[in-house]
Each structure stands twice: as structure tokens, then as C-alpha cells.
């Protein structure tokens, strides 16, 4: 089953230190090492200087939407008719998910996809994705570490 991944959407779900296109690319490459999947990651905007608009890495393809929106490119990649049900789009973008379902494709939330992948990684003992902290957890950490004083605080 081919997967289409909303690259910019996924990038913003990664841990703060790794929110870039390379990290998303690495996530896709890691996925195909563990599963028999074909993955296309679509990013908004042009490719980085010196990079092609389409990068084929075996079962992973990286696409840059250029002047079009990545959402439009993704919807256009889902084939019309009965074959659309064979395709899954991974995104948290509700409007994109609606458009894909209207076309007949399947959708999956990033949380669901990453959690499922994380469960597989834990079973195999390999390191994986760290989910973002909730706003409550972040506030607790800031309260705990922000009030301790010390040499590393800025003036």
C-alpha cells in the first residue's frame, strides 16, 4: 500500500532539535527498512539549492511542490476511482484529509502512524520518535527547571 506523507506537517511533529526536511526524509527511509512500503514525502516549496524537485531513494520518493501547494500535489497523486482506496495519506491537516477521503483515498493521522511505528521500534529495541510534550507537561518542566537558579541562567 503506497503512503503519501505530508512532509511539512510531519516536520512540525518531530522533536524540536530535529525539525527539518532531512529528519523527515530519515523517518521515511527508516519506515521502508522495517516494512514493505512505498513512501512519497511531499514538501511545500522548492527543493533546497542544488537538489532535484524529485528525489528517488529506492522505495522512498521526496517531492517538492514548488509553486503548487503540497496538499494539491498529494491529492493529485491519489489515483481516481477504485485504485484510490489503495493509497494512504499520513497527515494531521483536516482539510487535506477531507479532500483525500472525497477522492476515495485513506487517511491516517501522524499520531497514529508515529505511535504504531514507535511500538514496532520498542519491540525491536531500536530508538525512535519522541512525542511532543503536552502544554501541561511543558509548563511543569519550565516551572521545575526555571526556578532552580544556577550558573547557566541568562542575566
Task: Report what the structure shows.
The chain is an alpha/beta fold. It has a single domain (2-146), classed as Rossmann fold, CATH 3.40.50. It has helices at residues 7-11, 21-34, 70-77, 94-103, 110-124, 135-146; strands at residues 2-6, 38-43, 54-57, 60-64, 88-90, 106-108. Strands 3-4-2-1-5-6 form a 6-stranded mixed sheet, sandwiched between helices. Helix 3 (70-77) runs parallel beside helix 4. It is globular and about 55 Å long. The model is unreliable at 120-131 and 147-155 (pLDDT under 50).
Short description:
With 155 residues, the protein is α/β, with parallel strands linked by helices. The protein contains six helices and six strands; from the N terminus they run E-H-H-E-E-E-H-E-H-E-H-H. Helix 3 runs parallel beside helix 4.
Strand arrangement in the largest pleated sheet = 3-4-2-1-5-6
User: Looking at CATH, which topology would you report?
Assistant: Rossmann fold
Q: Biggest sheet, open or closed, and with what strands and sense?
A: 6 strands, mixed
CA-based gyration radius: 18 Å
Domain module tally: 1
Strand content: 15-25%
Based on the coordinates given, report the CATH architecture: 3-Layer(aba) Sandwich
Helix content: 40-55%
Report the count of strand segments: 6
Helical run tally: 6
Write the layout of secondary structure elements.
Blueprint lengths: L1 E5 H5 L9 H14 L3 E6 L10 E4 L2 E5 L5 H8 L10 E3 L3 H10 L2 E3 L1 H15 L10 H12 L9
Parallel strand pairs: 1-2, 1-5, 2-4, 5-6
Antiparallel strand pairs: 3-4
Helix pairs in contact: 3-4
Give descriptors for this structure.
Rossmann fold, six-stranded mixed sheet, 6 helices, alpha/beta, 41% helix, 6 strands, single chain, 155 residues, disordered C terminus, globular
Amino acid at each position: 500500500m503506497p503512503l503519501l506523507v505530508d512532509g511539512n506537517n510531519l516536520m512540525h511533529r518531530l522533536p524540536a532539535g530535529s525539525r527539518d526536511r532531512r529528519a523527515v526524509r530519515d523517518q521515511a527511509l527508516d519506515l521502508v527498512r522495517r516494512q514493505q512500503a512505498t513512501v512519497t514525502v511531499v514538501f511545500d516549496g522548492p527543493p533546497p539549492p542544488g537538489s532535484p524537485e524529485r528525489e528517488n531513494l529506492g522505495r522512498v520518493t521526496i517531492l517538492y511542490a514548488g509553486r503548487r501547494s503540497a496538499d494539491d500535489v498529494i491529492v493529485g497523486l491519489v489515483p481516481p476511482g477504485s485504485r484510490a482506496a489503495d493509497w494512504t495519506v499520513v497527515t494531521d491537516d483536516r482539510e487535506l484529509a477531507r479532500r483525500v477521503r472525497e477522492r476515495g483515498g485513506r487517511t491516517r493521522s501522524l499520531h497514529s502512524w508515529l505511535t504504531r511505528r514507535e511500538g514496532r521500534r520498542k519491540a525491536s529495541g531500536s530508538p525512535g520518535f519522541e512525542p511532543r510534550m503536552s502544554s501541561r507537561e511543558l509548563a511543569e518542566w519550565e516551572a521545575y527547571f526555571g526556578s532552580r537558579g544556577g550558573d547557566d541562567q541568562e542575566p
